[in-house]
Amino acid sequence: MKALLIGIGLLPLVRLIVLGYQDDLTANPIEFITRSTGTWALVFLCLTLAITPLRRLTGINQLIQYRRTLGLFVFFYACLHFSIWFWLDHSLIFSEMIIDVIKRPFITVGFISFVLLIPLALTSNQWAVKKLKRSWARLHQLIYLIAPLVILHYFWHKSGKNDYFTVSIYGAILLILLALRLRPRLKL
Amino acid sequence: QKLPAKVNPQFFVADKLTSYKDVTTYNNFYEFGTDKADPARNAHTLKTRPWTVSVEGLVNKPKVWDIDALLKLAPMEERIYRFRCVEGWSMVIPWIGYSLSHLIKASEPQGSAKYIEFISLADPKQMPGVNSRVLNWPYTEGLRLDEAMNPLALLTFGLYGEVLPNQNGAPIRINVPWKYGFKSAKSIVKIRITDKEPATSWKVSAPYEYGFYSNVNPEVNHPRWSQATERRIGAEGGMFAPKIKTLPFNGYAEQVAHLYKGMDLRKFY
């Protein structure tokens, strides 16, 4: 089952490779790949955050075992998203990348989101869970900060075209997923 | 549909041409949607005949031109221009048309005339994007009259030996190669000669990001990204080709820099 999930999770990458092979990545392949990997990181973020509410709604506790895989796919696509930008937009020149990060708020929040994902990915193993004990859960609450930052990143990206339709859908989904977590505490 | 034209060797760029496919499938033409692939998908609904262009305002000879009459106003030339989008990508395109100055001269601007305004079609029946409020429709662009009289400013009817595909601004658009692409209004229905700076669509929409002049300038960055380099679409080496340096006035400084003598181009961006 987990192997199947990994297979499915790799499909967006396979699609990009096939499109690339067929020379079908539009006139601006870099832009296309950057946007595609960014979108898929966001999709997997939504899926990851959907596990807990879904588990509560359906009572299927086994769902939890897929959360880590989904979370790692967030990091996987975020890594591709970041690497392509760092490599092809900044030719792997660290100083130039940092200037861009400082100068452009939309890049700043995207970069912070990526950096914050790193400790989460690094501690996504049994060993770290045991070692960190209670602070593991607290560390992984960072995702509640990452989610709105990612939406802000996307929102600012879209602001150039005043085109907020897609970003508001993702924003609404994440808002609902986060709001569902508040319910038990409010004792509704 | 073929559009015969004589190559004008005066306007020539040695760079490799951007492929016809890229030129016609990667477009910003918000009247047909904001995605770059939207215009090629949606612009088939645009009817380019009958088509008229009204030239009006401070001219002695205002006239509603039929598109077929405009096609015959001056000999068609093929010119290879660089095209630099404000978003940081560029193309090299063989356009067909003639200098905009021919039409301006035929209209006889009055002494008080200082600017020219281009107004694009905004018909929700033919243009699905007009229903969204991305910009104030109709799309409006403009130039100072002396800029418009520069021989580089091209009244454009075709590309790659053919009449303009709808998604590239058929049946008539302009090209101002030393300015960012959005200055080159598409599918024009009205040209107005005025004494006041026209309220251009992008400047109205985001005045801190887009100015009236919008000359290609590697030293004046867009507030959200650098303009120092550009990605040449379809460049040799494919997607891993490094970005290239953006040239002042998109490489046309020799022809147009004198128009801006004494002006602070950081202020008049």
Automatic annotation (TrEMBL), chain A:
One of its GO terms (molecular function) is oxidoreductase activity, acting on diphenols and related substances as donors. The keyword Heme applies. Residues 37-149 form the Ferric oxidoreductase domain. Its cofactor is FMN; heme b. It comes from the Bacteria. It is found in: Cell membrane; Membrane. It is a multi-pass membrane protein. The keyword Zinc does not apply. One of its GO terms (biological process) is protein repair. GO terms for cellular component: plasma membrane. Binds 1 FMN per subunit. Binds 1 heme b (iron(II)-protoporphyrin IX) group per subunit. The chain crosses the membrane at residues 40-58, 70-88, 108-129, 141-157, 163-182. Keywords: Cell membrane, Electron transport, Flavoprotein, FMN, Heme, Iron, Membrane, Metal-binding, Transmembrane, Transmembrane helix, Transport. Heterodimer of a catalytic subunit (MsrP) and a heme-binding subunit (MsrQ). Belongs to the MsrQ family. Part of the MsrPQ system that repairs oxidized periplasmic proteins containing methionine sulfoxide residues (Met-O), using respiratory chain electrons. Thus protects these proteins from oxidative-stress damage caused by reactive species of oxygen and chlorine generated by the host defense mechanisms. MsrPQ is essential for the maintenance of envelope integrity under bleach stress, rescuing a wide series of structurally unrelated periplasmic proteins from methionine oxidation. This is Protein-methionine-sulfoxide reductase heme-binding subunit MsrQ. The gene is msrQ.
